[in-house]
Design a protein that fits this description.
Blueprint lengths: L1 H43 L8 H24 L7 H15 L12 H11 L1 H22 L8 H40 L7 H16 L3 E8 L4 E8 L10 E2 L2 H7 L6 E5 L8 E4 L4 E4 L3 H11 L4 E8 L2 E9 L7 H66 L5 H27 L7 H16 L2 E7 L9 H18 L4 E9 L2 E8 L15 H9 L3 E6 L5 E8 L1
Parallel strand pairs: 9-10
Antiparallel strand pairs: 1-2, 1-8, 2-3, 4-5, 4-7, 5-6, 7-8, 10-11, 11-13, 12-13
Amino acid sequence: MAHEEDKFAVSTRQDRITLESVDDRMIALMRLTLAVSALVIIYIDPFEPDRFVIPTYLALVVYVFYSLFILLLSLYQRAPYLVAPWIDVACYLVLVSLSSGTSSIFFFFFFFPILVASFRSGFRQGISVTVASSVLFMIVGYATAPGGNQFELNRFLLRPVYLTVLGYMMAYWGGREIKLKRRLSLLREIVKLSNPRFGVSYTIGSMLQKIQKFYDADACLLILIDPVYKDTRLFRLRRAQVAEDVRSERLPEKFEQLLLSFPDELAIVYKSHAGAGDYAFDLAKQRKILGEWSSVSETVASKLDLGAFVSVPLRYRGKQSGRLYLTASGRSFRLTDIDFLMQVGEQVMPAIHNIRLLAQLAWTAAEDERRRLARDVHDSVIQPYIGFQYKLAAIRNKSAAGKPTADDLDRLFEMTVNEVNSLRGFVRGLKEGDSSEFGFMPSVRRFAAQFSESYDVDVQIESSGDIAVSNRLAPHLVRIVQEGLSNIRKHTTASVCRILIERQGSNLCLSVENNNPHANGASPAEFLPRSIMERAEDLGGHVSVEHGLDGRTTVKVEVPL
């Protein structure tokens, strides 16, 4: 399991590196294009540069070779884009100082590193490059600008403002795009983690670990409510823990009431013990509620020893399914976090529900298989041994009375051979699956003949209509016939029994009738063919028992074909 998760992490990392390498090549190519274009433009324009011509050409040539080096580097490995914007800013400051200062045509080059930093590293890096570019441009431009009437005060004041405003917008848009990409990546990873083979606890632990790393949270708490069993469970992950450490914990009643004390339609943002900035958000009405739930939030924070936290309700198919708590002492949560965590919950709950459902189905299937095997062993293994016991007792009684037993021993030996063959068929069916080698009706007739010969009971078989039975259904119906005849032998002294098999529409009707149902003293009301009823119900059918006035009892089984 851990190996598969490691493979998934390596694959994700490789995909991310591949995407970033493509971006690096594009950025490096644009940097080279910008450098070469500037060199060609100042070569064509006779008025640029207006001073320090040779140093400016040398600086641009050096920048062209630097850009070419970064492009070649990006073809083989990741380019150092975190450092590259600052190198670009330094190069542009040199070009500004060698040209016209604040009036330099190289002023517009500053937007390139701002754009790169914003859309590759986010808002913080973008705004840092923006502020540094604006301040340094003012300082270097003013220090190197020509004096006297050639100094343009309007450009000196306007260009830094222009650079700051546009740089802030780039940083904001770039940071927002990166944040949205990270959120989409988290949602995608959470969906991929929903593997039923990992189990509920590990899957929830992996999801909480992803959320914890995304927010750099101190702890994540997930409370799940089972709507069927009315059971509430807590899954918690603290910093430095891994997914394997997450376990399902049963909540004490008071603790459960505390964690679920907020209404289902409210999300909670708690910022401080002083109550400053705390609020609840009504998800239905889309509005803030100030002050009303602050005392409850402070109680939850103090009881659980939490700092700032956000709590959102979890729903599945419109019903309350639990609540998610996320706590982080080093940050404050916003309305955008509530919206995103609600989206996370919409992805998490169906996955958890499906895993729990599959686990329950697997457990139910195992229980049904154990019950089926128990019935098969009872009907196919235990019953023959009971017959052997009766035969051996009869032979022992004859031998004690001095009567000949050779014929009885021969019949017992033949009975043993037949039962061994039946047991081999039973074992072969367990290995290869339920199948009927000779068909349903031949199997019934063969077993009826063996039963009549072994127990001196006249078994009569009657059938009408088309009795085509699938290989899936035939073994179960044969087991019903076997159990019905075994019940006649165990619970009655009947000498004649009749098996009627007929098709009525899309159903198969099977009746087992005997002529002396309770000669051993048992009343009809006490007779209950439990094994037959269980088999019939598993096949989607039903069983009825009828008692005739002439003393006959009929067990009727009706199953859909």
